[in-house]
Amino acid sequence: MSQYIHFTEQQKTQARQTDIAELLRSQGETLKRSGSEYEWLDGGQKVTIRGNLWYHQYDQVGGDAIDFVRRFYNKLYPEAMEYLLGETGGTLTVSPPVQREEKNFVLPPKNDNMRRVFAYLLNRRGIDREVLYAFVHKGMIYESADYHNAVFVGFDPNGKPKHAHKRGTGSESSYKSNVSGSQPEYSFHWSGQAEPAPNSRNEGGEISKHNRPRSSGCLFLFEAPIDMLSFISMQKAKDLQKVWARENELKNAGIFERELAAAAYRWRKHSYAASCSVSDRVLFQTLKNNPNIRQVFLCLDSDEPGQTAAKRIADKLFVQGVSSEILIPYHKDWNEDLLAAGKQPVPEEQEEQPNWGIQLS
Predict the structure, then answer these.
(1) What ranges in 90-197 are assigned the alpha helix state H?
(2) Alpha carbon of 181 to those of 41, 57, 105, 261: distances in Å?
């Protein structure tokens, strides 16, 4: 049994205000200056440090110096306090209190067309055209006017934008970032739709019993919006392949066109979310907003951070009585799987030639 150690409020304040950059330097760690902040790598993941505050960009968690020592030095609260107060021999610089800034969320300005974003997502990323258009028409994807980034927008239940993730579209660009002030609970997501598929009505205008509108009750969680779109594209292709495999049979029954339309629409009945990290906040917010969801599929990257997060989230779902299953892409992520399945990137000089013909409102 650990011994209780009393710390005064003054000691707690002193420990909490320890300068984290100085702490790391005292341990021989390397930091990179970025404006008024520092960047430190936790394995391969970036941690932003400002005075006595830190934020893990991938896990989307942060805190003060005490939280930092507990998380990254694997210490209990009393041990972290003793370490920061110098009881274990360290003399550390105390940082003046840093005010946490409340940043207003503002969407990047829209470009008057989406030529570069369509070329990037359809050609280089292999996303299914109809799937992409479905998101565009809902205002969930657009091209920014400043840097021509693809912008993936997340809305709250009232239809108000609350989150935006930016992805560079240049051939050499690896840029990706969330817009300042974004709320991770509402990152890019799609709620399963209970709407009839095209051509699902009979001659009398009634919806057949086989095509009655209903959502599936399934939720698929991804790290990135492009992974989410890639997974949907592959699932749609598989659903269509099943119908084409029965073409003669269905044509003889007079229902081939109806079944083909239903298969192309089927992906819309599921719910999907991209955390734009390995956070679970959008997952649990989506579950809260959609009580009909009964099954969660965790579709994070196949690398160590992705699978560690998947197991962590699965444990949390188990405790809450929510059924879950981990789906692992064959390659590093679902877009790599999509491209490997046959849709290969095209040369950059061909990207901007097509006129995709979508009129933006």
Answers:
(1) 115-118, 129-137
(2) 23, 14, 4, 40
Look up residue 200 and give its two tokens: 């699902």
Q: Which residues of 304-335 are buried (b: 16+ CB within 10 A; e: fewer)?
A: ebbbebbeebbeebeeeebebeeeebeeebbb
User: To which H or E segment does residue 84 belong?
Assistant: helix 77-84
Mean pLDDT by 10 residues, the chain (361 residues): 71 89 85 85 82 83 88 85 68 52 85 96 96 97 96 96 94 86 94 65 52 74 97 95 93 93 93 92 94 95 92 89 94 95 51 36 32
Alpha carbon distance 134, 22 (integer Å): 50
**What are 188-199's pLDDT values in tens digits?**
999 997 655 555
188, HSE (Cβ side, Cα atoms, 13 Å): 29
Quote the strand ranges of the chain, DSSP E. 32-34, 37-42, 45-50, 53-56, 61-63, 141-143, 150-155, 161-167, 176-178, 189-190, 218-222, 271-274, 295-298, 323-326
Q: What pTM did the predictor assign? A: 0.69
| Strand, helix or coil for residue 358 | coil
Q: What is the helix (H) or strand (E) element at residue 351, kind and residue range?
A: none
